[in-house]
Amino acid sequence: MAEIRAQGLSKSFGSIAALQDLDLTVEDGSFVVLLGPTGAGKTTTLRLIAGLEQPDRGRVAIGGQDAAALPPAARDVAFVFQQYSLYPHWSVFDNLAFPLRSPARRVPEDAIRRRVQEVAELLHIAPKLQNKATRLSGGEMQRVAIGRALVRQPSAYLMDEPLSSLDAKLRAELRLELKRIQQDLGATMLYVTHDQIEAMTMATHIGVLKEGRLVQFGTPRQIYESPVDSYVATRLGTPRINLLPVDAVHVRAPNGAAMVGARTEHIKLIERPVNGTTVGLVQRLEHLGDQSHLHLQVADNKIVILVDGHSPLKQGDPLGIELVQPLFFDAGGRRVAGA
Amino acid sequence: MAEIRVEDLHKAFGDFTAVKRSNLTVGNGEFFVMLGPSGCGKTTTLRMIAGLELPTSGRILLDGEDVTFRRARERDIAFVFQLFALYPHMTVRQNIAFPLKCQGMPSGERRKRAADTARLLQIDHLLDQPVSRLAGGDRQRVALGRAIVREPKAFLMDEPLGALDAEFRHLMCQELRALHDRVGATTVYVTHDQLEAMAMADKIAVMNQGIVEQYGAPQEIYDRPASMFVADFIGSPPMNFLRFNGAVTPGSTAVKLNGCMLPVPVIDDGRAEGELALGVRPEHILFEDGSGLRGRVFGSEYLGTTQIVTVETSHGRVKARVPADVAVRTGENVGLAFRTPSLSLFDAASGQALRLRRPAEAAHG
Fold first, then answer.
1. pLDDT tens digits, residue range B188-208?
2. Does pTM surpass 0.90?
3. CA distance A153 to chain B (A)
4. Residue A177: its chain B contacts at CB < 8 A?
5. What range defines the domain where residue A253 resides?
6. How many domains does chain A have?
7. Does any domain span residue A235?
8. Concatenated DSSP letters for A41-74?
9. Is A140 found in the same domain as A18?
10. From the list A137, A237, A289, which residue is nearest B304 (CB)?
11. pLDDT single digits (tens) A50-80
C-alpha cells in the first residue's frame, strides 16, 4: 500500500472551478473520506488522482512517485464507481476474476479461484458465483463491483459512493465490512460520499469539501466536536446542529460571536423553567424509529433535538433550555472560541 | 377523498406468487406506507390498486365500490412515479395544468386550479418559470403538483424519493407529510426506507415475501414487532436477538440465558423447550458492571451524539447505542443490562413474537 499526496490541485470545467488548490495527504494505510454535497468537487478529486482527468494545476504523487506522466492503468489504484459496470454476459466469477487475468499480472488459475472465493464470501455473494451478472439484483451487482476492486492488492483503493445504491440494511453491513477489510489489508483508501454516517463510522480522517475547496481535514471526532465554521458544523450530526442568533437564548457569548451552535448534547432541558431561563414550546415529536426528534419553538427560532421515543411531551408544553458549552460562530460563520 | 380496501388480494406471475391473500384497509385521509425489501410484493400491491395490474383473485374497493377490474383511468387515483417526470419545455404552470388540459377543462378554470395548487406547494412565485431552470426540490414539488391538481380520490406513490440523497430525502419527507396534513388526501406510499415510513406514516404495513407481516402505527411496530423479520427490518442498527434454548410458561417474568436470569415483561404465551430469541433494541442496552450477562467489546462506531458499541457475547454479537461520552475500549469485558419493559421475545423457529404483557406506564419508562 502507498501514500497518496495531492498538492495545489485545481481543475475547471469551462467557467466552473470544480476544484481549487487542494492539498490533501492520504497516509499509507489510512481511510480518508471526502464528504460534501453534490458539486463540492469530491468526484473530481478522485478522478484526478486516478488519472481519469488531467489537472489544470498542481500534482499528484502515489507512493512518493509523481503520477503526472502515468496513465490510469500504470497508477496501480483500484477504482470503484458509483454505477457498477460489469460484463453482463459473464458469470459473477469471471467478472471478479477479470482484474487478475490481465496479461500483465499472470496470476495462476488456482490462486485466482482462491482469491475470488475469498472475496465473494466476504461480500456474501459466494452462492451466486456461477450466475450471470445480469441475473443479480442491484445490490448484488454493486457488491460484485466492489469485489472486483478487492481481488487485487493495489497501492490504493479509490471509491466513489459505492454504497449509495444499496438499501439501508445492506449499507450498514457493508460499512462495517469495508472498514474491517481496509484494516485487515492495511489498505490506503480514499472514499467519497455525501453520507455523514459513512464518513463518521469508516474514516480515520474526514476531508470536508465545499464548492471545490477543502474546508477542514481531521478525525471524525475533531470535525464533529471542533468544526472550523458553521458549514462544517452542519455537515455532521443528526439531527443537524441548531444555529441561533446569540441573543435568542440566555448564554454567555464570547466577543464577536453572532451565532450559537447547539447540538443535542449541548442542550439541557428543564421541565419546570424558572424566571430567566430560555423557554421553548414543544411543536411536535417526530418518531424516526431508532431516533425521536423533539421540535421546539424558541421565540422566532426552531430547534430540533434528540429525545427518548416515549417522552410524554405534548404540543404546546413549555420547556426550559440551558446551553452547556455550545459552539459559537461570528457573523461570517467562522468559529469563535467559547467564553 | 376515499377509503381503500384490499380483500384477499392474490397475485401470481407464473410459478411465482408476488402477493399472498393480503387484506388491508387504508382509512379515509390516512397516510399509509407499505414497507419492505425489494421483491416483497409492495409495488405489485400498489399497481393492483392503481389498476396497472390485475389480481389473480381478491377484490379492491374504493369508497366501498368494487373497482378490481376497472381501468386505471376510471379509478380517479393519481399515481406518482419518479417525481422528476416533467415536460422540460413547459413552464411550471403548464406542467401543473397539463392533466386538466387532458381532461378538457376550460383554460380559466385551469389557471385558477394550477395557481391554487402552486400556492399549496409554496411554489406560486415560480409559476411562469420553465421547469428546466428549477432546482431539484422545486422540480419535485411541480411533479407533486401535477398529481394534486386533479383532486383525485387517492394518491399512490412508488418510492418517489428513492433517487435523493439522505439529507434532502428527510427534508422532502417532512414536506410531504406537511402537505398531507394540509390536503388530507388518502395516500398509499411504497418504500423500502424505514426512515421515510417512520417519518410520514399514520399506519405502516410491513411486507415480506408477499405477506403482510405486521400492520399498525409506526411506534407500535417499532416497539412491539410481531415477528423477527419486522424487528430486524426496522431500526438502525436493527433489534439484537440473543438466541437461547429454553421453555416458558404463561405468567413467567424472567428467562434464563447461560445460567443468568434476565427479567422480561410478563409472558402470556407458553412454549415447550426449544430455541427462543430475546429481542432488545440497541438503545435499550446499558453497560452495568455488576451484570451477569457479559461480553467483550468488538469495536465502536462514533456517531457524534451517540456511538454504536458492538459486544461479542456467548449469544452472538450485540450492538448497543450509548452516549458518545461513555468510554469503552476494544477488548474490554463489559456487563450488559436491558430496559425490561422494552424487551421482546420470539419463537426462533417460527420467528413469531410471544405475547408479552406490558403495562402502559412501563412502556413510557
1. 999 988 889 998 999 999 999
2. no
3. 25
4. none
5. 242-336
6. 2
7. no
8. SHHHHHHHHHTSS--SEEEEEETTEE-TT--GGG
9. yes
10. A237
11. 999 999 999 999 999 999 889 988 898 999 8
